[in-house]
Amino acid sequence: MKTSIQIGKVMGIPIKIHISFLLVLVLFPVIFANDAVFGFADVASTSLRYALALTLTILLFSCVLLHELGHSWVAMKYGIGIRSITLILLGGIAAMEEVPRDPRAEMRISIAGPLVSLTIGVLCYLAYLGLGIYDIVQISAISHISRFLWSIAYINIILFAFNLIPAFPMDGGRVLRAWYAGRMPYLQATRKAVNIGKMFAIVMGVLGLFASIWLILIAFFIYIGASEEKKYAEVSVTLEGISVRDLMTSEIAYVQDNLSISELLRLMFEKKHLGYPVVDQFTGKIVGIVTFTDIRSVPMSEHGNVLVREVMANNVSFIPEDADAMDALKMMSVENVGQLLVQDKGSITGIVSRTDLTRSIEVLGYRER
Fold this sequence. Notes:
Number of helices: 13
Strand order of the largest sheet: 1-2-3-4
Radius of gyration: 26 Å
Largest sheet: 4 strands, mixed
Number of strands: 10
Distance between the termini: 32 Å
Shape: elongated
Low-confidence stretches: none
Helix content: 55-70%
């Protein structure tokens, strides 16, 4: 996520916080400072009350991080890389490099996070019971620690139960998909799990109209997450077994960096492609990529004066021609580019664009349906 910043690494995994997490640091302390059940509404000192509430907020999201690390640790045991863990307003996201297609692996990875939450909840509750005797004598510090343990225990147990709701993008939705995938094709299993998740979201949203706006927000989050999971599964299954070599354009039209925008537009009209590698006019080396999007901001009156080198993108991405088409799509998304130059043994053999992939998904997906 481009709106996230990295704050460290754990187990070699970059830990990031999303910009929405800043709202957590404001909203949650206010909630906990004025809550008599989970928070510190009964603390007389305002500054101490909010300091304790902020500390509880940080502790709870540390538990969320441990939850995601639970997923990540099991995934890494199955050889699946973790690009990052990002803390957001409604929890955390562990970005795996691939979704496990082995139902047993997905089941174990999905259940690992909730089990971490349950373990934290149980241990904190036992510690809370152990400190209960000290509350009798009203030792202030012990009382605050006891309240921390109670809140962390209770909320982690709620997170355990909530995450096992059989709805994407909850862990329970992935557990349900894994169960279905052991009995039917992966895509069919995903569709069944997604439909169940959407039904849960609709019911939760209706209940939210009468109970809490938080339920409506969570229902919206679940519904959108389920839809995105379905799209991702359809794309990954559709492109399965397809290599970049199968989709690339072998005949590459290069343009020199001193070409004018007017000349480039004529070339685009002639070749019917909207993206071209740019080479240095003197050395012939590739120095960038220029697309139709790059030139749209140039006023028409300047098309004869502005050169390609002034509008081109300097970052050029390469991919092996035997790479999976899905890998190409992921690279385009991560690097935010529309074209990749294709290589074989160090030589440029073609170019593949986002449009090539989109058209292939549409055609192959129609055939699959």
